[in-house]
Structures are given as structure tokens and as C-alpha cells.
Amino acid sequence: MGNKKSSSKSSLRHPKQYKGVDWIATRIRKRHPSRYENRASAKVVAKQILADLRSEGQRVTIKNIYGKIPQKILKGKAKREAPILDEGLTAITNYFNLSDYPLFVSRMAQVPEVLFEGLVIPNGLADMVGGFEYDYTEYFAPFVAFIDGLRGSGESTMYQEEWYVTCTEPSYNKNTKRWNSKIISCDVDGNEMRYGFDPNSPNKMPSAELKTILSTDIPKGVEKVQESAQISELDKQITLEKEKQRTLLFEMYSKDKIDKAFFDAQMKRLG
Fold first, then answer.
1. Per residue of the chain (271 residues), what is the pLDDT tens digit?
2. 3-state helix, strand, coil in the chain (%, to 5)
3. CA 251 to CA 53: how far, in whole Å?
4. Are residues 90 and 148 both part of a single domain?
5. Which end of the chain has the smaller Cβ count within 10 Å, N or C?
6. d(CA 269, CA 271)
7. Dmax of the chain from CA atoms?
8. CB atoms closer than 10 angstroms to residue 269
9. Cα–Cα distance, 214 to 16 (Å, whole number)
10. What pTM value is reported for the model?
11. Are residues 173 and 102 in the same domain?
12. If you ran DSSP here, which 8-state letter would residue 192 be given?
């Protein structure tokens, strides 16, 4: 990455979040989506957790929050506690920070073990298990290089909202009897987003079509153009550019080169 990485960090650093009731409620629902199906129920618990942490002088961290969530009483079966991920893995962070993931994974030496998987990792490599050391160059560098190729040298404002990564909360696989967590590419809100990286061909760089879609910002605040003699030349150019990008998106989606989440996000951007 060289100097590019350091300059990218300064321009793309995620703003510091206020860790209040809403922030805690979001993490609670992410941890137990079936137990807290609506935000109101999660906020009730979040308020109590925040009050408890403050009274005990504890920091508002993922680990401390999860330690305060009321345990569900299971009848007729043993209680199975999910492992808590390292905070570096649960954070929504810029894609180039995958360079830190081998360290975060190695710090997950615990029982039960966590198996990490995801579409940002090339196929054919050994399973990534918490507590062991792995090579960044093998496991994550291809994805980082791919996104670097997508971003190019442009200064598009969309780069403030895209190109993030995080880990999902561990889920238990009854067949393998192991806990699994997915390392996903996502947007700034943590919604999974595939950007065209192919784990079967990890060294394949972005296609010209995909780079074209993401190479130009569509100016914000421009009203939808109406057919009339008063349409400005700028409006015409914007309309043509949008149609060009929509066509490319439809072609790539129909050929399964991008997923629906990425397709929908870009179509929304185009308006």
C-alpha cells in the first residue's frame, strides 16, 4: 500500500461515534436479533446497561455491553454461550485496516473456538481459526488490492460511505459443532456489500465496466430533469451519465458479477 495507505487513512477515517443508548441498542440487536425484534425492546435494555456501566465506572465497550445483556433462560437444554469477538473485529473499519486482522484473529485464543470465513478471503486457504496466526499477504492483501483498483486515484465523495469491513457475530453450526463468524465487506452502516471481488480468482483486478460505474460522482441536489427546451447542457450530461451507469449495472447484475445489495445501493445513488 505504501504512502497511499497512510494518506487514505487520514481522508477516510470513520468519525468517532457517541456510545449512548442508541449505539448500545444497535449492538444488542446485532447480537440477539431474534430476541430483540424491534428497537424499542432493545433500547429498554440499553438504558439499563448504560446506567450500570456508568455506576460501575466501566467503559462502554462491546465486551462490557455483552456482559450486561440479560441471559436467556433455556428450558430442557444446556445454555450455550456465544464467544465474544475482539473489538477490532466488530468495529466497522476501512478496508485497508484488514492489515490488522491477523493480529485481531490471533488474540481470539479462547474456548469455544471461532472459525472465520468470508468472501474477502481467497478460496483454497486453510480455515482461519481464532487464536492462530495468519499471513496478511495470503488472506487479505488480494481483496485490499482489488478495492484499491476500484477506487483508483479519484476523490469521489462516495468513498466516505463505501469500502468498509467488519465481522458478523458468531453463530453456532449444529452440524460442525463450531462457532462461525463471517468477515464481510460492507458500507459505513455495516450492511453487507459485495464489490465484485472473486475469491476463486483473487488476483483478478476490477473490470473496466465496474470501474466506470464508480469513477464519476453524480452531483447531489439536482432535480430530476423534465423534457423541455429549457433543460441545461449540464442536466443533459448528468442524465446521460446516469443512464450509462444504470445500463452497466444491469448488465453486470444480470451476469452475476455483482450482488443485489451492491446493485441496489448504486441504483439508489443514481436516483
1. 444 444 444 444 545 567 888 888 888 887 777 778 788 888 888 898 898 888 888 888 887 888 788 765 444 444 567 888 888 999 999 999 999 999 999 888 776 789 999 989 999 998 899 988 999 999 999 999 998 888 764 545 455 567 899 999 999 888 888 899 999 998 888 888 888 888 999 998 887 777 666 655 544 444 444 444 445 665 666 676 677 777 777 777 777 777 777 777 777 777 6
2. 45, 10, 45
3. 51
4. yes
5. C
6. 5
7. 74
8. 18
9. 27
10. 0.56
11. yes
12. B
Is-contact 239 180, C-beta < 8 A?
Answer: no
Domain around 246: 208-270
Q: How many residues does the chain have?
A: 271
Q: Which three cell numbers stand for residue 54?
A: 456508568
Q: Which residues pair with 165 in a beta bridge?
A: 93, 185
Question: What CA–CA distance (Å, rounded) separates 102 from 75?
Answer: 39
- The 10 Å CB-count burial string (b at 16+, else e) for 45-59 is bbeebbeebeeeeee
